Amino acid sequence: MQCLFAAHLGDEVVASDVSGAQDRFFTSATVSEKEHMLHLKLVNASDHPQSLTMTLGGAKTGAAKMWSLHAGSFAATNSIAEPEKIKPLESTIAVSAGMKHTVPAYTIEVIDVAVK
Fold this sequence. Notes:
6-stranded antiparallel sheet, single chain, mainly beta, about 120 residues, about 45% strand, Immunoglobulin-like
């Protein structure tokens, strides 16, 4: 997780607001001026999915890259027998004005969105 966060770090923290989130839901938003990239980090440490409506001012619509790290439970971990039980998976997500998104339970997501 630390490597995933460090690889997607902007040089400026941008304002973000979450209302109606459940306990154990955390966010971070930074912008990389050099890369013209918004780095969103969404952490759902609860046992319930978290539904969101995101308004991303200045973001380009289209596809964004997303890395997801999901565990089946709070106690889930990798082991010698299952060294890749929990590992980052890369995918894409559609970005639009007022986009709806759900972060599954026990999941960390990093979303890189191009900005204008």
